[in-house]
Specification:
Layout lengths: L2 H18 L7 E5 L2 E4 H15 L3 H25 L5 H9 L2 H7 L5 H17 L1 H8 L4 E3 L5 E3 L4 E3 L15
Antiparallel strand pairs: 1-2, 1-3, 4-5
Length: 172
């Protein structure tokens, strides 16, 4: 391969990585420290959220991604800080909300309910400041079709939806 062809190939590779946002496999909605959150799981959860709440599908996709991402992050934070998140406490949090209970009752909604319950309980255990400090230590990547992670604000944004999903939105 001549020098011009190698330079062009390298340029194409760099452009491809830039355009994809280094998001990993197209089948990943997000990753947290290399742990994949499957696009198929996000879509199943979003369909369940849409059916249970009537939420617009694009908003449900984004919320499902955000909640599942925070759930995985919370599991990792709990492990790294030695914080126990009792299953009974997670279920009690979900049971307090009629929509969450309805979503949790479906096989497709169970991962979402676990993620939300884990995040709520861990937030209460650690406190918001400690939780956010730990969260910012994690390597989080969001597939560009769902937005872009902003670790400084613990959000990911997507101009087409014109709304931020923030840590405060966890306290619905």
């Amino acid at each position: 391969m001549n020098k011009a062809a190698r330079t062009l190939a390298a340029g194409v590779a760099v452009a491809a990585l830039t355009l994809t946002g280094c998001a990993g496999a197209p089948s990943d909605a997000a990753t947290v420290n290399g742990v994949r959150i499957a696009d198929s799981t996000v879509r199943e959860v979003a369909q369940t959220l849409t059916a249970a709440s009537g939420t617009e599908s694009s908003v449900a996709l984004r919320q499902a991604t955000y909640d599942l991402l925070l759930g995985e992050a919370s599991r990792q934070i709990a492990a790294s800080t030695g914080t126990v998140v009792p299953e009974a406490d997670k279920k009690a949090i979900v049971a307090q909300n009629q929509l969450a209970s309805a979503v949790a009752a479906t096989p497709q909604g169970a991962p979402w309910a676990d993620a939300v319950g884990t995040t709520y309980v861990l937030l209460e255990e650690l406190g918001e400041d400690s939780y956010l400090t730990e969260l910012n230590k994690l390597d989080v990547t969001v597939n560009p079709r769902y937005g872009q992670w902003d670790a400084s604000r613990v959000t990911f944004t997507d101009a087409s939806l014109a709304r931020d999903a923030s840590a405060a939105s966890l306290r619905r």
